[in-house]
Amino acid sequence: MDDHELLLGYRRGDARAAETLWARHAPRLLAYARARLTPATRDHADDVVQQVFLNILRRGRGELRAVRDVPAWLVRLTRNQAINHGRGERRHAERARKAAPREAESINAPDAQLLDAVGRLSDEQREVVLLRHVAGLTFDQIELATGINRNTAASRHRKALAALSERLGRKPPEIRAAHPAATHPTPGAPR
User: Could you count the other beta carbons within 10 Å of the beta carbon of residue 94?
Assistant: First the structure.
């Protein structure tokens, strides 16, 4: 079954379509959600992606039939859900900060320097880097997922890589997601 058939089957309640849709797309969406969320909320990526799949059930069949590129559409839903989750977490953190002082968080990861450099990119550049390298989207898919013109996305990507090279004093290592499949574009997807 192709992605559109899976999407519509899932919406109808077909358990096999749901399992296949999840198996095909969830690893990449989870990797993207983890990268998109802050270090303090990365463990909420599962919740973000589960909410995306629940929200699909609330969509009308006509809306699902109109989806042009299922992987890009799912990333857009994940992106929006992660942004909303991040806003809620920031409000919660601000309330907690006001209520009691917090200890500074530290990143204990082999690529802490890279994560820090990516974190210091502009929001626009960071978003394109995450979509390209973590979600594994092509520039055409980034355009569909965000509404950003593909050439603008490519330009932001080039500038982000140059900024990372400068900040790291070297060519940045490949940005990898937690799931290896997340770094490869969808077979047959336009580049």
Answer: 10
